[in-house]
């Protein structure tokens, strides 16, 4: 059901659920995509993200996935993600479905690396592999893994958003983005498995460091010539990606048995000489603690000298 409803909800608009009467005050638009718009909203002093769908069926299947994930044990991170599901009675008199989720205070992956520096890439990548592992261990593939669907909070902690592509292992992935898709690169099926997400993860690494060359490649290659080899050649020619070449090859040809195995190989690469970064940078709080300790020491020395014998 694609609608003509105008989704520009100005700041201060109150969205009320038709069935459960939850009221949310619109603060601003967080983002939009093919399936709807996501707004930052406030309710009783708390911040949430509210997604209004343009396609009721798609939004409902996203909600179903989130509800199933919430019921499952195993740390998918989705348990407290879904907050409310309801319909909104819009000014055109029609009902539109929406759901409310935890607000992730973060930046997209590329914004984060632009701001904090590409030194954080290995740390963030490792955190993302951890998120995927938890989802896979619960029997799901994320499906539509791409830069826009990965938000990074403080200290490189990663959160996935947009569960519209999440697919039970063994079923066909329906929502995907072409350049991240294993099928598009003639590298395998669209059947949901750990390898599907790991392939997208490898493309995401290339997209982060070589977006222009990747776009050129996809524009020039004929469909039958799209292969993992082409992606690997691009990675090999990139100074930023060359050290990761062997890991990328394993992900692109489907050699990793699981995201956990991929994460542990990633960790080995992180700690290897010549990796982009050998260890996580000192977080800001640690630097703050160091300055505070230095000040305390200076004050103590000063006090001892003044009150000394
Ligand atoms: N829980 C959240 N917290 C903060 N920001 C969010 C949240 N959910 C979504 N966003 C922002 O809104 C954007 C669009 O959300 P989402 O990807 O769910 O929409 P979509 O219509 O399904 O997009 P797509 O066309 O990629 O499938 C995201 O890229 C992200 O920047």
Automatic annotation (TrEMBL):
Taxonomic lineage of the native organism: Bacteria, Bacillati, Bacillota, Bacilli, Bacillales
A GO molecular-function annotation: protein serine/threonine kinase activity
Chain residues that bind ATP: 51
Residue stretches spanning the membrane: 285-305
Ranges of residues in domain Protein kinase: 24-309
Pfam families, sorted: Pkinase
Superkingdom, taxonomy of origin: Bacteria
Protein name: Serine/threonine protein kinase
UniProtKB keywords: ATP-binding, Kinase, Membrane, Nucleotide-binding, Serine/threonine-protein kinase, Transferase, Transmembrane, Transmembrane helix
Organism of derivation: Paenibacillus solisilvae
PANTHER family: RIBOSOMAL PROTEIN S6 KINASE (PTHR24351)
């Amino acid at each position: 059901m694609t609608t003509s409803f105008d989704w520009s909800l100005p700041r201060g608009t109150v969205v009320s659920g038709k069935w459960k009467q939850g009221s949310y005050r619109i603060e601003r638009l967080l983002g939009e995509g093919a399936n709807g718009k996501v707004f930052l909203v406030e309710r009783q002093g708390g911040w949430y993200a509210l997604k209004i769908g343009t396609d009721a069926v798609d939004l409902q299947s996203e909600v179903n996935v989130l509800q199933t994930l919430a019921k499952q044990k195993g740390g998918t991170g989705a348990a407290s993600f879904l907050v409310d599901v309801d319909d909104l009675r819009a000014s055109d008199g029609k009902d539109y479905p929406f759901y409310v989720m935890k607000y992730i205070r973060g930046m997209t992956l590329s914004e984060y690396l632009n701001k904090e520096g590409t030194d954080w890439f290995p740390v963030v990548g490792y955190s993302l592999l951890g998120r995927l592992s938890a989802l896979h261990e619960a029997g799901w593939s994320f499906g539509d893994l791409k830069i826009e669907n990965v938000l990074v909070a403080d200290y490189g902690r990663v959160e996935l958003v947009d569960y519209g592509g999440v697919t039970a292992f063994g079923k066909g992935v329906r929502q995907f983005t072409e350049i991240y898709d294993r099928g598009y690169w003639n590298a395998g099926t669209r059947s949901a498995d750990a390898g599907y997400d790991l392939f997208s993860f490898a493309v995401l690494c290339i997209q982060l460091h070589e977006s222009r060359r990747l776009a050129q490649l996809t524009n020039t290659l004929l469909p039958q010539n799209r292969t993992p080899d082409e992606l690997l050649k691009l990675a090999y020619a990139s100074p930023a990606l060359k050290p990761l070449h062997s890991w990328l090859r394993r992900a692109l040809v489907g050699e990793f048995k699981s995201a956990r195995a991929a994460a542990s190989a990633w960790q080995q690469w992180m700690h290897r000489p010549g990796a982009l970064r050998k260890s996580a940078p000192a977080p800001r709080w640690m630097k703050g603690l160091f300055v505070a300790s230095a000040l305390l020491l200076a004050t103590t020395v000063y006090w001892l000298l003044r009150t000394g014998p």
